[in-house]
Design a protein that fits this description.
The chain is of the alpha/beta class and 320 residues long. It has one domain: Rossmann fold. 38% of the residues lie in helices and 16% in strands. Helix 2 links the parallel strand 3 and strand 4. The longest helix is centred in the last third of the chain and has 35 residues. The N and C termini lie far apart (70 Å). Bound molecules: NADP nicotinamide-adenine-dinucleotide phosphate. NADP nicotinamide-adenine-dinucleotide phosphate (NAP) binds next to helix 1, helix 5, helix 7 and strand 8. InterPro entries: NAD(P)-bd_dom, NAD(P)-bd_dom_sf. Pfam families: NAD_binding_10. This is NAD(P)-binding domain-containing protein.
């Protein structure tokens, strides 16, 4: 299948509108996580949501979680993806788990200088995007081997693209570790669907043109476009309807209206499994090299700017 496309937002979640279905969510308080929980609650699907904070604390995340916890069918479970012992209680009784977590933005200076950045810090992308996914896979294999893991990542197979370089350089190699986490899933033997969205925006920031939705399976390359949180939460949830979405890596973007359609479910029913040998075992070294090249280029650029400013000042002072 080449392209599969869709435009009605918040599709009716046909077959999965079942009160017996239970879905675990990691990334509860995030932009995508909270949107997915709202959509699941509206569809009368129970959720068990991993939460790192106490509900009675005053942090912004706790405030978001407090309002989510008031929705019907929503249960909060205290835990952290970096703490494997907290995951069995989350996945118990669930049919699927949505892994929508992402690391917090690091200090860019620390990110650019690897000797200042601790890869074992629980907020580092290695822990959140890679070790955390290994923890989820281990828990699923041991306690609930039939459940599907849905993981949100992003385009990550072009280590030398400007987007990858910037995100890796300033974001603790977030793209690199997301790709490595994907590979854990693809080689794990568990049921999985990997969703690679474009640039995430809220519905207020971006109007989706009618009939603009598109999905490409097998991690197919597509031009990066904005996509809304609603759209991506919808794809993650609707993928659970389709058994053929098991063992799939899906790129999700918006396209020109002439190329798109308006219904994710008609697209999802056509997706095919990831092809063996299609995905490189690891791209970690290339991603690290791209980030290093980006750092050197940034330093060279800043030196160039400084020298130019110095020359201009020297030139102007010559007139005084
Ligand atoms: N932004 C984009 O344009 C874009 C594009 C493509 C892909 N993505 C990917 O999409 C994912 C989600 O994006 P988003 O905008 O929803 O992220 P977000 O708003 O930053 O939310 C991240 C969520 O992950 C949680 N989290 C962080 N560390 C955790 C841990 N150790 N254990 C459990 N939960 C943890 C955070 O919880 P706390 O509240 O407790 O911190 C928060 O709920 C990310 O992986 C990102 O890489 C983003």
């Amino acid at each position: 299948m080449k392209y599969i496309v869709s435009s009605v937002l918040l599709l009716p979640l046909l077959c999965i509108t079942s009160s017996s279905l239970q879905v675990a969510v990691i990334g509860t308080t995030g932009n995508i996580g909270r949107t997915a929980i709202q959509q699941l609650s509206e569809a009368n699907i129970s959720t068990k949501c991993l939460l790192r904070h106490d509900l009675d604390s005053t942090s912004p995340s706790a405030t978001i979680a407090t309002s989510l916890a008031k929705l019907p069918n929503v249960q909060m479970i205290k835990g952290d993806i970096s703490k494997p012992e907290t995951l069995p209680a989350l996945i118990e009784g669930c049919d699927a788990i949505l892994c929508l977590q992402g690391p917090p933005k690091p200090n860019p200076i620390k990110s650019m200088l690897p000797f200042l950045s601790n890869e074992n810090d629980t907020s580092h992308s290695r822990i959140v995007n890679y070790v955390g996914m290994q923890n989820v896979i281990n828990a699923v294999k041991q306690y609930n081997p039939n459940m599907r893991i849905v993981r949100l990542t992003g385009k990550g197979e072009e280590p030398y693209s400007i987007f990858s370089i910037l995100i890796n350089m300033l974001g603790n190699l977030a793209k690199a570790w997301n790709y490595e986490g994907e590979q854990l899933l693809r080689t794990s033997g568990v049921k999985y669907s990997i969703i690679r969205p474009g640039l995430l925006k809220s519905s207020e920031e971006y109007n989706i043109p009618p009939k603009a939705k598109m999905i490409r399976d097998n991690g197919g390359n597509m031009k990066v476009t904005p996509v809304t949180y609603d759209q991506i939460a919808d794809v993650c949830i609707q993928s659970l309807n389709h058994e053929n979405c098991n063992q799939c890596t899906l790129t999700v973007m918006n396209v020109e209206e002439a190329e798109g359609v308006d219904d994710y479910s008609t697209l999802l029913e056509k997706v095919e499994n990831d092809k063996k040998g299609r995905f490189p075992d690891s791209l970690l070294d290339q991603h690290k090299m791209g980030a290093r090249i980006g750092f050197v280029a940034t330093v060279a650029f800043l030196f160039g700017v400084l020298n130019t400013v110095k020359s201009v000042i020297g030139f102007l002072l010559g007139f005084i």
